[in-house]
Amino acid sequence: MSYDNKSKHRQILHSGLFLGIGFCALSLSACQQPDHHDTTTDQADNTSQTNSTEDTTAANSAQVSTKTQFPHYIDKLPTLLHPITPLITSENDGIYDELSSLKSRDDNYYPSIFSENTPYTYSSHMSNLVFESIATGTTKTLLPNNDFLIQQVFIPFVSRSPISQQDQSDAVTVAPSQSTNANELAQNVPTTEAQRESADVETVTTLFGRMIYHINETPYQENDDDQNLFSQQALYMSDDMGGALNKLHPDNEFVQQTKWMPQISRYYFITQSDSDDNGNIDEKDTTYNYQIDFSTDEPTVKKYDFTDESL
How far is CA 37 from each of CA 34, 40, 43, 49, rounded to the nearest angstrom? Predict the structure, then answer.
């Protein structure tokens, strides 16, 4: 092969080499470009999802702030009761007192923070309740959060007039009829705390160391038309220090009626469930009967049903 032919051959090889390198570089650049574009798109999508999640979390977060009210003293209770009332956050009005708002909506409706209606029965409007031991100053908060609304508090009790030894002997010898005994007991129970303090006949009141609460678990959810499920109440019970809190019936039941019978120290209540799943508690729904005997050392809930044919 001549020198000219060898030179031309080298030129062809060099040209082919440069073309190959250039082609590979272009191919590599073309292959990398889609990857860079996809990464940017994924970052944008992730940012969008994060913002959406944050918005949803913010929308679902509790909008209820609270306010601590003056404490209440109840005779023979070992604790002071500190009501915690709700303050509602509004985009337009900021934070405002829900009690004031409720009063302004209807001149005939004045919700009470904590007031006695009948002996040891208190209507209330509280997000929570703090118990302060009078002896030690230690505190205990009743509920784990402020999402519920406590609408009534009841303290099981009995009040009787003290009797002499002779009266006790006579009572053992001659047992009064049930109706007479009930009437006598009723006459010995003053109707309000003020009357108990100023009653002409001194009475001896015994508390059973328990407190029962009517609680709305969904107070800030609105019912649909012709429905009342979100306004229903559940029954809870604790000890008189705010501990040992427990629900007295299954989650799908709601309290409808209660009755305290001091003559035998029993508490009765009736619940209903939304058995037809229509979002409304009415006469068509199933009812359940319960009682608690407070004469025992550990009062527990007992379910009963005398309409059951198997009994």
Answer: 5, 5, 10, 19
